[in-house]
Specification:
This protein has helices at residues 2-5, 124-128, 219-223, 245-251, 325-334, and strands spanning 9-11, 43-44, 53-60, 66-77, 82-91, 94-103, 109-113, 116-121, 133-139, 142-150, 156-162, 165-166, 168-169, 184-190, 198-202, 209-214, 230-234, 237-238, 255-261, 267-272, 281-285, 292-297, 313-317, 338-343. By secondary structure, it is mostly beta strands.
């Protein structure tokens, strides 16, 4: 795709290997407070079939203890104009309900908390061209916010945040109640005369920088990096662009400390195509900008016979980094027989 090919790249094969500066402290990403949540729960005014869903959010009770709380979401398209989205949860022994009524054509918004209207907006601007809005309000002692974002023609996304926290959507059913965090792992790359052996590019999803190519047998490949891995930080700098990398590598002495998305080395999954079956996966972008989330697997499709799982985050397809779920689908369709995926690794569980 044109936008993908135009991204700047940084080859880290023949950068100077010396370095007079002292090595910085361990990479700071884990200390930054940044969550790497795979999926945020949103309602979609054009998707009535999938309108019922739920997610988890961590809220602090009266004693300050963080507790995982299940939030249910239900959406009803009442007519060509009005959409009603309801969220409800129980916390500290009390059930709360937030309801949004949004006129997609009239531009009106009404927000109710526990059946009491707390906000009503109707403006000429929203009637002529509804560009979305944000609404802050209180739910008991909690602060909440509803975000309305336009999506296509007369379509909208609706998101609720509670105490500044995103609601992390479950994509695994009742057994998957834990947070869908991708996590991070630390890597140390040696600086050698042959270079690091990889090319990095800006991430199309705006988080960290992406391993675009690898040279077999060189440091990056030997350390276990794979195409599509997202490097979040190097030495003492959190990364969102390749611009500072040359300076960071030159300053590092002996080794380069890196922090990479995923709690374990990314794994490779192969799916065999069958002309008599659908490939059988649904994909969406992740909330955190690391890969593309597998949100559904058709039990009758090709992918159901592989090790690909709902909740996996796809980093590359056929050794190419996809810039969108649509691009990932194109790469899958272009593969002749076997489709190779690199997906974010899971944490290794010890007995």
């Amino acid at each position: 795709m044109a936008s993908t090919q135009a991204m700047p790249a940084l080859a880290m094969s023949n950068l100077p290997q010396g370095g007079s500066g002292a090595r910085g402290p361990p990479t700071p990403h884990k200390l930054s407070g940044r969550r790497l949540s795979k999926s945020v729960m949103r309602a979609d005014s054009q998707d009535v079939i999938n309108s019922k869903s739920w997610g988890m959010v961590e809220l602090r009770d009266g004693s300050g203890t963080a507790r995982s709380t299940r939030v249910m979401q239900n959406e009803v398209v009442e007519d060509i104009n009005m959409v009603k989205v309801t969220w409800f949860w129980s916390f500290d022994g009390v059930t709360h309900e937030v309801e949004l009524r949004h006129g997609r054509r009239s531009g009106i918004r009404k927000i109710y908390v526990n059946k009491v209207m707390v906000d009503r907006i109707k403006s000429l601007k929203n009637w002529v061209s509804d560009t979305g809005s944000r609404h802050e309000f209180a739910v008991s002692r909690l602060q909440a916010e509803i975000i309305i974002v336009p999506k296509g023609v007369q379509g909208f996304h609706y998101q609720l945040k509670i105490d500044g926290q995103d609601i992390e959507q479950s994509v695994q059913g009742p057994a998957g109640e834990g947070p869908l965090d991708i996590g991070t792992r630390a890597l140390t790359l040696p600086k050698t005369s042959e270079g690091l052996g990889m090319t990095l590019r800006n991430n199309p999803f705006k988080t960290g920088v992406v391993v675009w190519t690898l040279e077999e047998g060189k440091a990056a490949a030997r350390t276990g990096l794979q195409i599509g891995d997202v490097v979040l930080s190097m030495e003492d700098e959190i990364l969102d662009s390749i611009e500072p990398l040359v300076d960071i590598v030159q300053r590092a002495s002996g080794v380069i400390n890196m922090e990479v998305a995923g709690t374990a080395p990314s794994r490779t999954v192969s799916v065999v195509k069958n002309k008599d079956k659908n490939f059988g996966i649904s994909m969406q972008v992740t909330a955190c900008g690391v890969g593309i989330l597998v949100s559904e697997i058709d039990p009758q499709g090709c992918a159901a016979s592989s090790n690909l799982k709902v909740g996996d985050s796809i980093l590359s397809v056929m050794d190419q980094v996809a810039s969108s779920p649509k691009h990932a689908k194109e790469l899958i369709n272009n593969a002749e027989y076997v489709v190779k995926f690199v997906v974010v690794g899971e944490e290794i569980k010890k007995a």
